[in-house]
């Protein structure tokens, strides 16, 4: 499992630019917002957490179609399905490696982008914390779409279409927890705990559903 994690981590970084492409897209999405809403610093500060979360969500969708594509291309996907190690555990490890290579850099970059949006220290910290907790859920959800579209030659757009509606609850509670920490009077803990629960829920459901889709694909 450790070898699989390290292998997928290297593949995620190398394939299509990996983390660099995601960070550049994240930066582009956040950087163009001030040009659209104008130089109102108070408005930028108010909408900043939501914009950072939306940018991170869209950037996380990049590369999800390649989660199982390398194994499909070289024929090792059949070996993964037939190996003694449970396929659901293999899928979980692959999702973890993918998030470490593409999602974690977005979390690390979010404080810098928060400065672009004139966010204060509390808002920047809350946004980074909620992204750290919530962004893995996006990868686990994306694994299902990637498994469904793995047999398609150009399934990238299809994966995004399938995954985006399912990630809306993660976005809602991530932004709600951030605003609760910054503005109140709503408490921060309830939406934050729901965000954690969503991540744990999809950490179980996502690999299981992806495993079922992969088995159906290889039959």
From TrEMBL:
Family indicated by similarity: Belongs to the CcmB/CycW/HelB family.
Any one GO MF term held by the record is: heme transmembrane transporter activity
Q: Mark the transmembrane ranges.
A: 12-37, 43-64, 85-108, 128-150, 157-182, 188-214
Protein name listed in UniProt: Heme exporter protein B
**UniProt organism field:** Rhizobium lusitanum
InterPro entries in UniProt: Cyt_c_biogenesis_CcmB (IPR003544), Cyt_c_CcmB_bac (IPR026031)
Protein topology in the membrane = Multi-pass membrane protein
Note the superkingdom of the native organism: Bacteria
Q: Where in the cell is it found?
A: Cell inner membrane
Please give the biological process terms from Gene Ontology that the record holds. cytochrome c biosynthetic process; cytochrome complex assembly
The task this protein performs is described as: Required for the export of heme to the periplasm for the biogenesis of c-type cytochromes.
Could you tell me which NCBIfam families the record lists for this protein? ccmB (TIGR01190)
Q: What is its main location?
A: membrane
Q: Which UniProt keywords apply?
A: Cell inner membrane, Cell membrane, Cytochrome c-type biogenesis, Membrane, Transmembrane, Transmembrane helix, Transport
The GO cellular component terms are: plasma membrane
